[in-house]
Design brief:
By secondary structure, this protein is mainly α. Helix content is about 80%, strand content about 0%.
Length: about 400
Protein backbone atom coordinates (compact mmCIF):
# COMPACT_ATOMS: atom_id res chain seq x y z
CA UNK A 1 0.00 0.00 0.00
CA UNK A 2 1.35 3.45 -0.92
CA UNK A 3 2.04 6.14 1.63
CA UNK A 4 -0.85 8.28 0.36
CA UNK A 5 -3.22 5.33 0.57
CA UNK A 6 -1.97 4.58 4.09
CA UNK A 7 -2.64 8.13 5.16
CA UNK A 8 -6.14 8.03 3.68
CA UNK A 9 -6.86 4.81 5.56
CA UNK A 10 -6.40 6.47 8.96
CA UNK A 11 -9.58 7.37 10.83
CA UNK A 12 -10.43 10.92 11.92
CA UNK A 13 -9.11 10.47 15.47
CA UNK A 14 -5.78 9.09 14.26
CA UNK A 15 -5.34 11.99 11.85
CA UNK A 16 -6.25 14.49 14.56
CA UNK A 17 -3.74 12.88 16.95
CA UNK A 18 -1.00 13.25 14.35
CA UNK A 19 -1.82 16.89 13.68
CA UNK A 20 -2.25 17.72 17.36
CA UNK A 21 1.12 16.21 18.27
CA UNK A 22 2.86 17.77 15.28
CA UNK A 23 1.40 21.20 16.05
CA UNK A 24 2.13 20.77 19.74
CA UNK A 25 5.83 20.20 19.07
CA UNK A 26 5.82 22.95 16.44
CA UNK A 27 4.38 25.53 18.81
CA UNK A 28 6.52 24.32 21.70
CA UNK A 29 9.64 24.79 19.55
CA UNK A 30 8.27 28.12 18.31
CA UNK A 31 8.13 29.37 21.89
CA UNK A 32 11.61 28.02 22.62
CA UNK A 33 13.29 29.46 19.52
CA UNK A 34 11.83 32.92 19.95
CA UNK A 35 14.42 33.22 22.72
CA UNK A 36 17.45 32.43 20.55
CA UNK A 37 16.63 35.26 18.16
CA UNK A 38 16.65 37.77 20.96
CA UNK A 39 19.89 37.14 22.86
CA UNK A 40 21.48 40.38 21.70
CA UNK A 41 18.40 42.55 22.36
CA UNK A 42 17.84 41.10 25.84
CA UNK A 43 21.53 41.46 26.71
CA UNK A 44 21.41 45.11 25.66
CA UNK A 45 18.33 45.91 27.78
CA UNK A 46 19.69 44.23 30.90
CA UNK A 47 23.23 45.58 30.44
CA UNK A 48 24.99 42.22 30.07
CA UNK A 49 26.50 40.02 27.34
CA UNK A 50 25.15 37.27 25.07
CA UNK A 51 26.88 34.55 27.09
CA UNK A 52 24.97 35.57 30.24
CA UNK A 53 21.62 35.64 28.43
CA UNK A 54 22.34 32.30 26.73
CA UNK A 55 22.13 30.76 30.22
CA UNK A 56 18.37 30.90 29.61
CA UNK A 57 18.79 28.18 26.98
CA UNK A 58 20.80 26.11 29.46
CA UNK A 59 18.11 26.48 32.11
CA UNK A 60 15.31 25.60 29.68
CA UNK A 61 17.11 22.49 28.50
CA UNK A 62 18.13 21.52 32.03
CA UNK A 63 14.51 21.68 33.23
CA UNK A 64 13.13 19.51 30.47
CA UNK A 65 13.90 16.13 32.15
CA UNK A 66 11.81 17.27 35.12
CA UNK A 67 8.85 17.89 32.84
CA UNK A 68 9.39 14.66 30.91
CA UNK A 69 9.40 12.63 34.11
CA UNK A 70 6.55 14.49 35.82
CA UNK A 71 4.14 14.58 32.88
CA UNK A 72 5.20 11.12 31.69
CA UNK A 73 4.43 9.65 35.12
CA UNK A 74 1.04 11.39 35.15
CA UNK A 75 0.25 10.09 31.66
CA UNK A 76 0.96 6.50 32.70
CA UNK A 77 -1.68 6.90 35.40
CA UNK A 78 -4.29 9.23 33.89
CA UNK A 79 -3.84 8.88 30.13
CA UNK A 80 -1.81 10.64 27.43
CA UNK A 81 -4.59 12.96 26.24
CA UNK A 82 -5.62 14.94 29.38
CA UNK A 83 -2.04 15.32 30.59
CA UNK A 84 -0.93 16.60 27.18
CA UNK A 85 -3.61 19.31 27.30
CA UNK A 86 -2.54 20.43 30.78
CA UNK A 87 1.08 20.56 29.68
CA UNK A 88 0.36 22.75 26.64
CA UNK A 89 -1.55 25.25 28.78
CA UNK A 90 1.36 25.40 31.24
CA UNK A 91 4.16 26.14 28.78
CA UNK A 92 2.01 28.65 26.87
CA UNK A 93 1.27 30.61 30.06
CA UNK A 94 4.95 30.64 31.07
CA UNK A 95 5.99 31.85 27.63
CA UNK A 96 3.54 34.75 27.91
CA UNK A 97 4.78 35.59 31.40
CA UNK A 98 8.37 35.80 30.11
CA UNK A 99 7.44 39.00 28.33
CA UNK A 100 6.88 40.72 31.69
CA UNK A 101 10.19 39.76 33.31
CA UNK A 102 11.57 42.86 35.13
CA UNK A 103 15.12 41.52 35.51
CA UNK A 104 17.41 38.99 33.86
CA UNK A 105 17.17 36.78 36.96
CA UNK A 106 13.37 36.66 36.81
CA UNK A 107 13.55 35.89 33.08
CA UNK A 108 15.93 33.01 33.76
CA UNK A 109 13.54 31.61 36.39
CA UNK A 110 10.63 31.78 33.95
CA UNK A 111 12.66 30.08 31.23
CA UNK A 112 13.51 27.28 33.66
CA UNK A 113 9.81 26.78 34.44
CA UNK A 114 9.01 26.95 30.72
CA UNK A 115 11.52 24.13 30.25
CA UNK A 116 9.50 21.95 32.65
CA UNK A 117 6.45 22.38 30.42
CA UNK A 118 8.41 21.96 27.21
CA UNK A 119 9.96 18.75 28.54
CA UNK A 120 6.61 17.05 28.86
CA UNK A 121 5.16 17.73 25.42
CA UNK A 122 7.45 15.67 23.18
CA UNK A 123 7.16 12.37 25.03
CA UNK A 124 3.39 12.66 25.49
CA UNK A 125 2.71 13.63 21.89
CA UNK A 126 5.03 11.00 20.44
CA UNK A 127 3.65 8.15 22.55
CA UNK A 128 0.04 9.16 21.89
CA UNK A 129 0.59 9.10 18.12
CA UNK A 130 2.89 6.06 17.88
CA UNK A 131 0.44 4.03 19.96
CA UNK A 132 -2.52 5.15 17.84
CA UNK A 133 -1.38 4.44 14.26
CA UNK A 134 -0.54 1.25 12.28
CA UNK A 135 3.07 0.06 12.59
CA UNK A 136 3.74 0.60 8.89
CA UNK A 137 2.99 4.32 9.32
CA UNK A 138 5.40 4.97 12.19
CA UNK A 139 8.44 5.95 10.12
CA UNK A 140 6.72 8.58 7.95
CA UNK A 141 4.72 9.94 10.89
CA UNK A 142 7.87 10.03 13.04
CA UNK A 143 9.53 12.22 10.44
CA UNK A 144 6.47 14.48 10.35
CA UNK A 145 6.31 14.77 14.15
CA UNK A 146 9.98 15.59 14.51
CA UNK A 147 9.74 18.12 11.68
CA UNK A 148 7.50 20.04 14.07
CA UNK A 149 10.70 21.20 15.78
CA UNK A 150 12.19 22.93 12.71
CA UNK A 151 8.67 24.01 11.76
CA UNK A 152 8.54 25.88 15.07
CA UNK A 153 11.96 27.39 14.39
CA UNK A 154 10.73 28.37 10.92
CA UNK A 155 7.62 30.07 12.32
CA UNK A 156 9.76 31.82 14.95
CA UNK A 157 12.08 33.11 12.23
CA UNK A 158 9.11 34.49 10.27
CA UNK A 159 7.64 36.14 13.35
CA UNK A 160 11.06 37.60 14.16
CA UNK A 161 11.35 38.88 10.58
CA UNK A 162 7.85 40.43 10.57
CA UNK A 163 7.32 41.65 14.12
CA UNK A 164 10.51 42.04 16.14
CA UNK A 165 11.35 45.57 14.98
CA UNK A 166 7.78 46.62 15.84
CA UNK A 167 7.02 44.88 19.14
CA UNK A 168 10.47 44.13 20.62
CA UNK A 169 11.52 41.08 22.58
CA UNK A 170 8.79 41.42 25.22
CA UNK A 171 6.06 41.47 22.61
CA UNK A 172 7.59 38.42 20.94
CA UNK A 173 7.17 36.39 24.12
CA UNK A 174 3.55 37.48 24.38
CA UNK A 175 2.88 36.13 20.89
CA UNK A 176 3.98 32.78 22.33
CA UNK A 177 0.67 32.26 24.12
CA UNK A 178 -0.80 30.99 20.80
CA UNK A 179 -0.15 27.26 21.46
CA UNK A 180 -2.84 27.26 24.15
CA UNK A 181 -5.45 27.24 21.36
CA UNK A 182 -4.26 23.75 20.40
CA UNK A 183 -5.95 22.35 23.49
CA UNK A 184 -9.32 22.86 21.78
CA UNK A 185 -8.30 20.55 18.92
CA UNK A 186 -7.15 17.84 21.31
CA UNK A 187 -10.23 18.18 23.52
CA UNK A 188 -12.71 17.88 20.65
CA UNK A 189 -11.09 15.51 18.13
CA UNK A 190 -8.38 13.32 19.72
CA UNK A 191 -9.10 10.00 21.43
CA UNK A 192 -7.04 8.37 24.15
CA UNK A 193 -4.19 6.03 23.16
CA UNK A 194 -5.46 2.47 22.44
CA UNK A 195 -2.40 1.11 24.25
CA UNK A 196 -3.42 2.97 27.42
CA UNK A 197 -6.98 1.75 26.93
CA UNK A 198 -5.74 -1.84 26.52
CA UNK A 199 -4.36 -1.73 30.06
CA UNK A 200 -7.32 0.04 31.61
CA UNK A 201 -8.55 -1.92 34.60
CA UNK A 202 -5.24 -3.73 35.07
CA UNK A 203 -2.77 -3.05 37.86
CA UNK A 204 -0.85 0.14 37.21
CA UNK A 205 2.85 -0.26 36.62
CA UNK A 206 5.42 1.83 38.44
CA UNK A 207 7.27 3.75 35.71
CA UNK A 208 10.26 4.29 38.00
CA UNK A 209 10.64 0.55 38.52
CA UNK A 210 10.31 0.06 34.77
CA UNK A 211 13.20 2.46 34.24
CA UNK A 212 15.26 0.55 36.80
CA UNK A 213 14.42 -2.83 35.24
CA UNK A 214 15.43 -1.63 31.79
CA UNK A 215 18.46 0.41 32.89
CA UNK A 216 20.75 -0.84 30.12
CA UNK A 217 18.55 0.37 27.27
CA UNK A 218 17.80 3.54 29.26
CA UNK A 219 21.52 4.29 29.58
CA UNK A 220 22.07 3.55 25.89
CA UNK A 221 19.30 5.94 24.87
CA UNK A 222 20.46 8.72 27.22
CA UNK A 223 23.94 8.63 25.65
CA UNK A 224 22.39 8.56 22.17
CA UNK A 225 20.13 11.51 22.94
CA UNK A 226 23.00 13.46 24.47
CA UNK A 227 24.83 13.23 21.16
CA UNK A 228 21.64 14.04 19.24
CA UNK A 229 21.02 17.16 21.31
CA UNK A 230 24.56 18.44 20.83
CA UNK A 231 24.03 17.78 17.11
CA UNK A 232 20.83 19.82 16.80
CA UNK A 233 21.43 22.56 19.37
CA UNK A 234 25.04 22.85 18.22
CA UNK A 235 23.90 23.77 14.71
CA UNK A 236 20.76 25.76 15.59
CA UNK A 237 20.76 27.68 18.86
CA UNK A 238 23.56 30.11 18.10
CA UNK A 239 22.95 30.23 14.36
CA UNK A 240 21.10 33.59 14.51
CA UNK A 241 23.87 34.98 16.74
CA UNK A 242 26.46 33.65 14.27
CA UNK A 243 24.71 35.56 11.47
CA UNK A 244 24.33 38.75 13.51
CA UNK A 245 27.68 38.88 15.29
CA UNK A 246 30.05 37.38 12.73
CA UNK A 247 28.40 38.41 9.49
CA UNK A 248 26.65 41.55 10.84
CA UNK A 249 23.36 40.71 9.13
CA UNK A 250 20.23 42.66 10.01
CA UNK A 251 16.95 41.31 11.39
CA UNK A 252 15.44 40.54 8.00
CA UNK A 253 18.46 38.71 6.54
CA UNK A 254 18.87 36.68 9.73
CA UNK A 255 15.20 35.73 9.68
CA UNK A 256 15.30 34.69 6.02
CA UNK A 257 18.41 32.52 6.43
CA UNK A 258 16.96 30.85 9.52
CA UNK A 259 13.75 30.16 7.61
CA UNK A 260 15.66 28.59 4.70
CA UNK A 261 17.62 26.44 7.14
CA UNK A 262 14.42 25.15 8.69
CA UNK A 263 12.84 24.32 5.36
CA UNK A 264 15.82 22.00 4.89
CA UNK A 265 15.16 20.52 8.33
CA UNK A 266 11.53 19.80 7.50
CA UNK A 267 12.51 18.16 4.21
CA UNK A 268 15.16 16.03 5.92
CA UNK A 269 12.97 14.89 8.80
CA UNK A 270 10.10 13.76 6.61
CA UNK A 271 12.30 12.18 3.90
CA UNK A 272 14.44 10.13 6.26
CA UNK A 273 11.43 9.13 8.35
CA UNK A 274 9.83 7.66 5.23
CA UNK A 275 13.11 6.04 4.18
CA UNK A 276 13.50 4.36 7.58
CA UNK A 277 10.52 2.13 6.79
CA UNK A 278 12.55 0.62 3.93
CA UNK A 279 16.10 0.52 5.30
CA UNK A 280 15.49 0.41 9.06
CA UNK A 281 15.84 2.97 11.83
CA UNK A 282 19.55 2.53 12.50
CA UNK A 283 20.75 2.73 8.91
CA UNK A 284 18.67 5.86 8.24
CA UNK A 285 20.12 7.61 11.32
CA UNK A 286 23.70 6.66 10.43
CA UNK A 287 23.46 7.84 6.83
CA UNK A 288 21.77 11.13 7.75
CA UNK A 289 24.26 12.01 10.49
CA UNK A 290 27.30 11.29 8.32
CA UNK A 291 25.88 13.44 5.51
CA UNK A 292 26.49 16.46 7.77
CA UNK A 293 30.28 16.10 7.58
CA UNK A 294 30.86 17.21 3.96
CA UNK A 295 28.43 20.11 4.44
CA UNK A 296 30.35 21.70 7.36
CA UNK A 297 32.60 23.99 5.23
CA UNK A 298 29.61 25.34 3.31
CA UNK A 299 27.51 25.71 6.47
CA UNK A 300 30.04 27.40 8.75
CA UNK A 301 32.68 29.05 6.57
CA UNK A 302 30.80 30.54 3.60
CA UNK A 303 30.87 34.31 3.14
CA UNK A 304 27.90 35.12 0.91
CA UNK A 305 24.21 35.05 1.73
CA UNK A 306 23.52 32.53 -1.05
CA UNK A 307 26.22 30.10 0.08
CA UNK A 308 25.21 30.42 3.72
CA UNK A 309 21.61 29.68 2.73
CA UNK A 310 22.69 26.55 0.85
CA UNK A 311 24.87 25.44 3.75
CA UNK A 312 22.14 25.98 6.33
CA UNK A 313 19.57 24.15 4.19
CA UNK A 314 21.76 21.10 3.55
CA UNK A 315 23.05 20.92 7.11
CA UNK A 316 19.55 20.73 8.52
CA UNK A 317 18.50 18.12 5.93
CA UNK A 318 21.17 15.95 7.55
CA UNK A 319 20.62 16.96 11.19
CA UNK A 320 16.84 16.71 11.18
CA UNK A 321 17.02 13.75 8.81
CA UNK A 322 18.67 11.84 11.63
CA UNK A 323 16.27 13.35 14.17
CA UNK A 324 13.26 12.34 12.06
CA UNK A 325 13.71 8.72 13.13
CA UNK A 326 14.06 9.52 16.85
CA UNK A 327 10.34 9.49 17.85
CA UNK A 328 9.67 6.05 16.37
CA UNK A 329 13.05 4.56 17.34
CA UNK A 330 12.74 5.58 21.00
CA UNK A 331 9.10 4.45 21.24
CA UNK A 332 9.89 1.07 19.69
CA UNK A 333 12.79 0.53 22.10
CA UNK A 334 10.79 1.59 25.18
CA UNK A 335 9.26 -0.87 27.68
CA UNK A 336 5.48 -1.05 27.13
CA UNK A 337 4.56 -0.08 30.70
CA UNK A 338 6.44 3.20 30.61
CA UNK A 339 6.18 4.42 27.02
CA UNK A 340 4.74 7.84 27.87
CA UNK A 341 7.64 8.42 30.29
CA UNK A 342 10.58 6.45 28.91
CA UNK A 343 11.24 8.06 25.47
CA UNK A 344 10.70 11.61 26.66
CA UNK A 345 12.75 11.14 29.82
CA UNK A 346 15.69 9.60 27.92
CA UNK A 347 15.46 12.40 25.35
CA UNK A 348 15.37 15.13 27.97
CA UNK A 349 18.15 13.63 30.11
CA UNK A 350 20.25 13.84 26.98
CA UNK A 351 19.13 17.45 26.75
CA UNK A 352 20.23 18.03 30.34
CA UNK A 353 23.71 16.71 29.65
CA UNK A 354 23.91 18.81 26.49
CA UNK A 355 22.26 21.85 28.07
CA UNK A 356 25.51 23.79 28.45
CA UNK A 357 26.03 23.69 24.70
CA UNK A 358 24.96 27.31 24.02
CA UNK A 359 27.15 28.91 26.73
CA UNK A 360 29.98 26.56 25.75
CA UNK A 361 29.77 27.49 22.08
CA UNK A 362 29.38 31.19 22.90
CA UNK A 363 32.45 31.00 25.15
CA UNK A 364 34.53 29.32 22.44
CA UNK A 365 33.45 31.91 19.88
CA UNK A 366 33.93 34.98 22.09
CA UNK A 367 37.38 33.80 23.20
CA UNK A 368 38.39 33.82 19.53
CA UNK A 369 37.04 37.18 18.50
CA UNK A 370 33.40 36.15 17.97
CA UNK A 371 34.40 33.22 15.73
CA UNK A 372 31.05 31.43 15.87
CA UNK A 373 31.85 29.50 12.68
CA UNK A 374 34.56 27.52 14.46
CA UNK A 375 32.33 26.60 17.40
CA UNK A 376 29.47 25.54 15.09
CA UNK A 377 31.78 23.38 12.94
CA UNK A 378 33.53 21.76 15.90
CA UNK A 379 30.39 20.60 17.71
CA UNK A 380 28.69 19.45 14.51
CA UNK A 381 31.61 17.36 13.28
CA UNK A 382 32.28 15.56 16.55
CA UNK A 383 28.66 14.72 17.31
CA UNK A 384 27.86 13.48 13.79
CA UNK A 385 30.57 10.82 14.14
CA UNK A 386 29.51 9.89 17.69
CA UNK A 387 25.86 9.43 16.62
CA UNK A 388 26.81 7.18 13.71
CA UNK A 389 29.04 4.93 15.84
CA UNK A 390 26.74 4.73 18.87
CA UNK A 391 23.66 4.01 16.73
CA UNK A 392 25.50 1.20 14.94
CA UNK A 393 26.26 -0.43 18.30
CA UNK A 394 22.67 -0.30 19.55
CA UNK A 395 19.47 -2.37 19.11
CA UNK A 396 16.45 -1.92 16.83
CA UNK A 397 12.80 -3.07 17.16
CA UNK A 398 11.25 -1.89 13.92
CA UNK A 399 7.45 -2.40 13.82
CA UNK A 400 7.12 -3.70 17.38
CA UNK A 401 3.51 -4.59 18.32
CA UNK A 402 2.66 -1.98 20.97
CA UNK A 403 -0.83 -3.21 21.85
CA UNK A 404 0.21 -6.85 22.19
CA UNK A 405 3.17 -5.77 24.32
CA UNK A 406 0.88 -3.73 26.58
CA UNK A 407 -1.60 -6.57 27.06
CA UNK A 408 1.05 -9.14 27.98
CA UNK A 409 3.39 -6.88 29.95
CA UNK A 410 3.59 -7.71 33.62
CA UNK A 411 1.88 -11.11 33.19
Amino acid sequence: MSLIADLKSLDASQKSAIWASYLGWTLDAFDYFLMVFMFSAIAKEFGTDVKAVSQAVFLTLAARPIGAFLFGWLAEHFGRRPVLMADIILFSALEFASGFAPTLTSLLVLRFLFGVGMGGEWGLGASLVMESIPARMRGPVSGLLQSGYPSGYFVASLVFYLLFDRIGWRGMFMVGVAPALLVLLIRIHVKESPVFEARRGKARANPVLELARHWKIALYLVVLMTAFNFFSHGTQDLYPTFLQKQHHFDTHTTGILAAVMNIGAIVGGIAFGIWSEKVGRKRAIIVASLLALPVIPLFAFSNTVLMLAMGGFLMQVAVQGAWGIVPVHLNELSPPLARSLFPGFAYQLGNLIASKNAPLQAGIAEARGDNYALSLALVCGVTAVVIAIWTALGPERKNADFIADARTAGE
